[in-house]
């Protein structure tokens, strides 16, 4: 009887907890449910002394899009843990200083990015950028679009490009 | 009655927001600044509602506010005792299902001086391969806000190629920050001066090489491998030594050395062939 119960519990665990959600697995095996379907339109150009190569930018843009998915999630929930694979230690420490969990029904979506790579290191570890991002805000049943200017410093650490510092500029309303 | 009043207030507020005229903006919301500075010292709002929630939706995080009603007006404070990521935000009031959002700018109360982040690539330069280094710089405050490098607030990043001198050593991008160091190593050695002498008492020959320097007279790094190869009667004896203060030496039995052809090598730099003879 006990064996049957144990087997039944194990079977339920296998059925109801997808493998990617189990804790304790390495980060690269786990599925990022917040970022997996986030695919904003992205264009890029460069103003840097050394131009980034296309393959490096494919990797970079994938991580940058995932970062924005997590920034939108962070803004809505103050959940600092979810996107920590895309944050440097300094950035993570900063957002952890606002510990209050919160669930706002104000959502933000990044619809498109026009990225200008400002600095690019030849060892592909440092990228600074300016970004004209089209945002959509959904607030209490209404929605509005805005064009925002953003400057950011991204560092490649471990498996991902990570946000190290940012500057949000002014926003302009858009149709 | 109260619901109707609140509805009127919200409609009037939203209408005022749309026309963006400061004189008519939110007649029931007084003294609302365009910029909220963190940590918040608190602000007061005249709003006719029984219950009220409020929060600030910043560009990165949301900061809930504590609302306290006193003598017909609401007073708001925040638990956020630290600085924030600055940028456009929304100040949101909610009463029941009614919600009102006002665009504000959030900033830090304290003027941040910022720390310069300077990166050099490559971090270690060998004079054989390059005589310039790529330097990148930006300024970040303690709350991870990028700060402008110029007074016009348009320049956030700087990069340039720095021409190196030909002197090997450790350099710093920022004088008081060891992490901004970069390292210039000497190049390959130019040639290999060799000397030898026989010690009849000990029955040995002492062979030394040095000083080993690169094209710019920088000493070769200590620990560099120096190979002494002696060829005699169809056999080769290989002796190895490590460089110290640009010199290396080996002691060889006299019978191996006498009449042998010697060549000293450091990686791909070789000395001329020398026949060891006793004067």
Structure write-up:
The complex is a heterodimer of chains A (175) and B (279). With 175 residues, chain A is an alpha+beta fold. In chain A, 26% of the residues lie in helices and 37% in strands. Chain A has a five-stranded mixed β-sheet with strand order 1-2-3-4-5, with helices on one face. In chain A, a hairpin with a 2-residue loop joins strand 3 and strand 4 (142-157). The mean pLDDT of chain A is 90. Chain B has two helices and 22 strands. The longest helix of chain B is centred in the first third of the chain and has 18 residues, at 2-19. In chain B, a hairpin with a 5-residue loop joins strand 10 (132-140) and strand 11. In chain B, strands 1-7-6-3-4-5-2 form a seven-stranded mixed β-sheet. In chain B, strands 17, 18, 20, 21 and 22 form a five-stranded antiparallel β-sheet that branches. In chain B, strands 8, 10, 11 and 12 form a four-stranded antiparallel β-sheet that branches. The A-B interface holds A 48-50, 71, 74-78, 90-91, 94-95, 97-98, 100, 102, 104, 106, 118-119, 121-123, 125-126, 128, 130, 137, 139-140, 146, 148, 151-153, 164-171 and B 55, 57-64, 79-80, 82, 84-88, 90, 92, 94, 99, 101, 117, 119, 121-122, 134, 136, 138, 140, 142-147, 156-157, 159-161.
């Amino acid at each position: 009887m006990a064996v049957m119960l144990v087997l039944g519990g194990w079977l339920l665990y296998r059925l109801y907890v997808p493998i990617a959600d189990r804790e304790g697995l390495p980060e690269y095996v786990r599925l990022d449910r917040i970022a997996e379907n986030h695919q904003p339109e992205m264009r890029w150009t460069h103003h840097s002394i050394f131009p980034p190569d296309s393959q490096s930018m494919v990797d970079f843009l994938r991580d940058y899009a995932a970062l924005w998915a997590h920034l939108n999630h962070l803004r809505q929930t103050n959940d600092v843990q979810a996107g920590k694979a895309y944050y440097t230690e300094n950035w993570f420490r900063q957002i952890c200083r606002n510990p209050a969990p919160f669930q706002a029904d104000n959502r933000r979506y990044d619809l498109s990015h026009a990225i200008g790579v400002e600095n690019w290191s030849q060892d592909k570890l440092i990228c600074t950028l300016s970004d004209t991002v089209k945002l959509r805000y959904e607030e209490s049943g209404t929605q509005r679009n805005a064009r925002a200017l953003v400057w950011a410093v991204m560092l490649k650490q471990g498996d991902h490009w990570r946000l190290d510092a940012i500057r949000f500029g002014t926003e302009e309303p858009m149709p | 009655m109260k619901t109707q009043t609140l509805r009127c207030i919200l409609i009037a507020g939203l209408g005022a927001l749309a026309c963006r005229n400061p004189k008519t903006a939110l007649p029931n919301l007084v003294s609302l600044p365009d910029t909220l500075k963190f940590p918040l010292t608190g602000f007061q709002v005249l709003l006719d509602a029984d219950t009220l929630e409020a929060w600030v939706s910043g560009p990165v995080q949301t900061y809930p506010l504590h609302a306290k009603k006193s003598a017909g007006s609401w007073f708001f404070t925040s638990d956020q005792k630290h600085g924030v990521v600055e940028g456009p935000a929304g100040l949101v009031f909610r009463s029941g299902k009614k919600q009102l959002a006002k665009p504000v700018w959030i900033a830090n109360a304290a003027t941040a001086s910022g720390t310069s982040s300077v990166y050099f690539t490559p971090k270690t330069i060998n004079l054989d391969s390059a005589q310039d280094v790529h330097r990148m710089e930006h300024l970040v405050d303690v709350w991870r806000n990028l700060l402008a490098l110029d007074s016009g607030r348009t320049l956030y990043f700087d990069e340039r190629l720095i021409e190196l001198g030909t002197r090997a050593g450790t350099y710093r991008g920022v004088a008081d920050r060891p992490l901004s160091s970069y390292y210039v190593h000497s190049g390959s050695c130019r040639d290999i001066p060799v000397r030898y002498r026989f010690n009849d008492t000990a029955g040995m020959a002492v062979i030394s090489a040095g000083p080993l320097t690169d094209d710019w007279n920088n000493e070769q790094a200590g620990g560099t491998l120096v190979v002494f190869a002696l060829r005699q009667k169809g056999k080769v004896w290989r002796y190895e030594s490590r460089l110290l203060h640009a010199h290396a030496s080996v002691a060889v039995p006299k019978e191996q050395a006498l009449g042998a052809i010697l060549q000293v090598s450091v990686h791909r730099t070789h000395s001329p062939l020398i026949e060891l003879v006793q004067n």
